[in-house]
Amino acid sequence: MKKDTKVLHSYEMKDKLTGAASIPKYQVSTFHQENILANQEFVYSRFGNPTISSVEKAVASLENGKYGIAFSSGVAAISSVLLLLSSGDHIIMCNDIYGGTYAIVKDILEKFSIEVSFVDEEDSSAWEKEIRENTKMIYIETPSNPLLKITDIKRVCEIAKQNELISICDNTFMTPYFQNPLDLGVDVVIHSATKFLNGHSDVVAGLVVTNNRALQERIKSQQVNLGGILGVEDGWLLMRGLKTLAVRIEKSELNAKKIAKYLANHPKIPKVHHPSLKSHIGREVQLNQASGFGSVLSFELKNQEQVLQLFNAINYPLVAVSLGGVESILSYPWSMSHGGMPSSEKQNRGITKGLIRLSVGIENAQDLIQDLDQALKTI
Ligand SMILES: Cc1ncc(COP(=O)(O)O)c(C=O)c1O
Which SUPFAM superfamilies match (predicted)? Predict the structure, then answer.
């Protein structure tokens, strides 16, 4: 089955009972039990719900995974996975990382005396060098947010396996359409389904997928205990959004490649970050491990004043904290996605006051380029 067919037909997308063309919304909190001593599949919606179970199966099948768990947000998924660690454990994470994941590390993991090292993700040996006696987990985000840095998933997972570490990969930017980390050796894949999987900027959701039964059980129990479940309405919307993943992501990636090229040739822009560009450091690794470059890019202006001028002049993109919608979304990592990170940490990571992130949508590429062009002329 080709991947665009897989997006629609590798899981049950119709209701078995009635033949309805979409899985119904089981808008319930609880389920009647005929026999209180017998096991039944659905008991209480915090433990499991038929609509949510369908979404979990759908995303798991797209990731070539056996088990999916849907969460109330990407961050709920990430925190449930990171809290598999115990006090005194050590985790190695990529340097360039989503601001909310960094916040979990600083506000929660460190409070529980879980040690964290951040490494240069582009250098596989840096991951290996950082392993200590108490290291239990490695955490990859590739391409990373917001600098699109690429980690060699296969190589880093080999290192993890040799050292009996659990490997986690945030696959939000690529989606299973372009990259399948489980096939490359990752133990647990995480998604902010708020982004491309849903694709319409109208749902907040998270997904975890794994092939490892023991990990599935631990993460599921973590979710039952912490309570970060996905609501039925949002699960249903996510399932609907998923059906058009292929057409959305193909079109937005095509646009992103054109825009990255245009920006890279613009005299007012010193640097553009997108793996489609020959100048991008991780490009070769990306070509080996993914079938696309994705539609999130970032670029640098000289200073914050220029950034403000561009944001004031731009017309089409939504100016917002998010990405992966059908509409283009422009954001400013310094004060938005990474606003909670101390300035010195941002500077160390290359998140400058001149950095702008663009999630390219499915509009006409020429219109988007003309809009950027007129906005850049005001600088
Ligand atoms: C790469 C990445 N992972 C995780 C998240 C968190 O997802 P959510 O906002 O759904 O909690 C985001 C949000 O922007 C993200 O960009």
Answer: PLP-dependent transferases
